[in-house]
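WARN no homologs supplied; continuing
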Amino acid sequence: MSAWVIIVFMKNGFLKITRSLFLLLLLVHPVKVEAGSQFIEPVQITSNPGQDFAPAVSPDGKLLVYVSDQSGNLDLWLKFLDPAVHLPDRRLTFHSAEDNSPAFSPDGKSIVFVSNRSDPRGDIYILPLDQGKRGADSESGDRDTVDEGLVRLTFADSSDSDPVWSPDGQWIYFTSQARESNQKKIFKIEVKTGSKSPVQEVEGINPSISRDGRYLAYVSGNALWVRDMKNNKRVLLTSGAQMDVSPQWSPDGKHVYFTRYQEDSNFDGKVTIEDRPSIRRVEWGASSRFRQLTDNTTYDLLPAVAGKNLYYASTRKNRTNIWMLPADGMLIKEIDYGKSLQIVNDLCSGVMADYRCLMAYRNLFQEFDGEKGLARIRYLAAKEEEALGYLKHAEESFSALIKKYPDDAEYKA
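OK structure emitted
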């Protein structure tokens, strides 16, 4: 069994999601939603017979590269997102080994990815997109023809994953674990020379570089961290009992998008990767305001942001495909608190045990902390958690409500 990785997180060590475990997770069924129709419905981008995941979008937003097993093997595929282009998805890699974790170069001309073709632990390769086209157009689809255009950056002395480009295209940042080590660290490798070096001894995984090249977001433990590459200072971006993975900077550098495992959706008494995750984002800066973007009714992960759109992998009815939402998520974002409050009241008044309303309540008190009337919204969110069966979350939410509003007699009881 090869160990291709779609998510990795740390808790008393590291855990890999292998192909067999991922396919097992596809048994998680979506939950029917009963809330009002004003919520934004995601748009399905791929609909192949296999499993499609790990979306990467070109800088101009016109191309999507993703991982799919539609050919019977995990390969990279390219899709044209331009509605004026009507061409079938194109297979980019043809090797019998598994290829995954694609990322576009800043100029949109190359893909960096992880392959097990020479090392079952995974190595980093670069594929020029014009070379992928030549391989696809060859008479036999000969994998050796495609391999001629590949640039191999790392070798069998380490297990390598999660590659991303630096904004200037000169470096690849990635996660690496030496054979003799139990620690995973963030490294960078120069594309031209192959010179490899650790990034200030950063222990972690899932690196993401801001568009200006200054900030490195990554996962350490179950939390997200950001390191300032100029002064090497670290900032803890998320904390708590939940598991946060797969950070991605927004193009404007104002947000970090990520996957969060928070709800015990299978009710086994603990939060694990077998529970349904959702896509979230957090503002980068002094406010650090959070927003939930998908509603926990499906298994949503691996966000990728391009322009005003959010792409992600979602498992529905035992199939995983790439889906798209506005970058603000399922609920229209209003800057004005009064308008936001009115929208939530209109959508969720009298509604109970509804995931989308729980998401709406959470967004309201997270994004407008300090406004009047939020004690009631926090109370309604806790009641939703209680009605959905998340009793531990509900208890914690009620306790937080009393602590935050100790003089509000209406909720103290």
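The chain has a mean pLDDT of 87.
OK
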